[in-house]
Amino acid sequence: MKNNAIYLKVTKDMFWVQMVWAFGVFGVMLIIQIGKLILGANQGDAPDNFYSSFFIVANFFTFIIGIISISFLPHYVGNGVTRKDYFKGASLASIGLAIILPIIALVISVLTQFILQNVASMTFKEPNFDSFGSDSNLIGDIIQFLILTPYVNPENNVILALGIFSLNILMYYLAGWLIGAAFYRFHTIIGLGFILLAIVILTFENVLVRNTLNLPVLENYSFIELPVNIAVPVIFLLVILLIWLIRSLTKNVTIKM
């Protein structure tokens, strides 16, 4: 097999394996959504739409599969695939997931809302991802920021909404992959240091995106403010930084068979 075809096969394999996991999450969320709809109908409460529900779940899901993605490395190397081809394939697979998952979530959301609004006259409540708590504790702020990532309502600007959603997914996937690679290569202490680094990068990216979109920012991070023409390139540099760090960790790592 030609070398340029090897990493494409890795891309295809990893993408579809992780998409199967994603479809499992979609299925579970649909069941939960149906349960919420039934309870909401009985109690008179408007439920969240599927898109906004998956918006939060997607970050944690992609973070976890990002961590797991390092487990593909010994499998591929053991079958003659180079570390470089693994890295290129896994990177392309992560980008593919980041693009397709928001689109699928939006399609499911639109279909369910259309059916329920026309058949059952059911309404859905507007999502609110900017209602931060008033606690000035730094740890509490970090947790809130990691959960409440920048959100744009697709009803207002579908392209921007999908783009921000994709960026969130990609950042969390890469952060998870970085942590997984760090623990695979180093011992626990250094691995914990990479967890801290990933949190710093995710938080910084979150603040920059919020500033760019004129979304609320917690007071503890109000000092981080850059002009849009500088913030946008910095955001993409953070993505490149994560990718470079992952490549550095996996480039010559000893494979544990």
TrEMBL record:
Domain of life from the UniProt record: Bacteria
Keyword Membrane: yes
Keywords assigned by UniProt, alphabetized: Membrane, Transmembrane, Transmembrane helix
Chain segments annotated as transmembrane: 20-39, 51-77, 89-116, 158-179, 186-204, 224-246
Name of the protein: ABC transporter permease
Signal peptide from the UniProt entry: none
